[in-house]
Amino acid sequence: MNHQGFVTVDKVAATFGMSKGQLAETIGLNREALYKLARLEAPKTQSRLKEMLEIVSRVSGWAGGKEQAMAWYRAQPIAAFGGRTAESLVKDGQAGALRDYLDHIALGGFA
Fold first, then answer.
1. Most-buried pick from 18, 44, 102, 107 (CB within 10 A)?
2. Domain extent listing, the chain
3. What is the rounded distance in angstroms from the CA atom of residue 7 to the CA atom of residue 103?
4. Residue pLDDT, tens place only, 88-99
5. CA pair distance 52, 58, nearest whole angstrom
């Protein structure tokens, strides 16, 4: 986050070894959302970035690190959501349901 409270896209992309275009695809937005300042600071863009970062952060401990957590986020089907990935859920605005599911798992619930 920068001093204005916005997610710093360049740092996020570098952390995960992605281009801004790849990062935009990962959060379900077109690439202009991360290249144009007005769109970068838009609530929808910032919300999607924060949701992705929160979910990846939540699973990084049991996934084995941030790179593995991102791989899980992008590719691992989740049976409780009909085989959809975390990435797919966030793109469709279902990050809240995914957070609830992760909380359930963290408390010892079954997947």
1. 102
2. 9-106
3. 24
4. 999 999 999 999
5. 10
